[in-house]
């Protein structure tokens, strides 16, 4: 069973990160989110513990500092169908990290660990 979840991306860094991961994976932003929320990334994010810090620093290696420096989604509100396992992964990570303040932060952490696995500088 899939659960359609609406993600609203308001942070320029997270949008840029999503677009970079999507491009590297050769997937749409929705497909990239679906691919990223998996057991492997959940385990990494929980065990490493640096996800939110890395997310806050995304783009610094490319001298992206202002919102205008980051790539933006054409439509920052995405409805993403997630499986029960994917929802469980989101909950597991959210329960493990009290610094997560929003669903956007939560997805961003999964994206930052995917970016790391893809060889991006994080």
What are the main properties of this structure?
two-stranded antiparallel ribbon, 6 helices, mainly alpha, 122 residues, globular
- Sequence stretches where pLDDT stays below 50 over 5 or more residues: none
Total of DSSP H or I helical runs spanning 4+ residues = 6
SSE pattern, N- to C-terminal: EHHHHEHH
pLDDT averaged over residues: 96
For the biggest sheet, the summary is: 2 strands, antiparallel
Q: Please state the structural category.
A: mainly alpha
Task: Calculate the terminal CA-CA distance, rounded to whole Å.
Answer: 34 Å
Strand order of the largest sheet: 1-2
- The value of Rg in angstroms is 13 Å
Q: Level of helix content?
A: 40-55%
Shape: globular
The proportion of strand residues reads 5-15%
**Total strand segments:** 2
Plain-language structure description:
- The chain is mainly α and 122 residues long.
- Helix content is 55%, strand content 11%.
- The protein has helices at residues 12-25, 29-36, 39-48, 51-57, 84-96, 103-117; strands at 2-8, 77-83.
- A two-stranded antiparallel ribbon has the order 1-2.
- The model has no long low-confidence stretch (mean pLDDT 96).
List the helices and strands and how they pair.
Layout: E1 2-8, H1 12-25, H2 29-36, H3 39-48, H4 51-57, E2 77-83, H5 84-96, H6 103-117
Antiparallel strand pairs: 1-2
């Amino acid at each position: 069973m899939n659960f359609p979840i609406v993600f609203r991306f308001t942070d320029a860094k997270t949008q840029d990160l999503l677009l970079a991961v999507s491009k590297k994976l050769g997937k749409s932003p929705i497909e990239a989110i679906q691919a990223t929320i998996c057991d492997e990334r959940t385990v990494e994010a929980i065990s490493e513990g640096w996800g939110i810090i890395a997310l806050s620093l995304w783009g610094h290696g490319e001298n992206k500092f202002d919102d205008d420096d980051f790539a933006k989604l054409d439509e920052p509100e995405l409805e993403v169908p997630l499986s029960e396992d994917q929802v469980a992964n989101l909950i597991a990570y959210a329960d493990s990290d009290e610094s997560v303040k929003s669903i956007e932060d939560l997805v961003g952490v999964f994206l930052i660990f995917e970016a790391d696995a893809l060889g991006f500088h994080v």
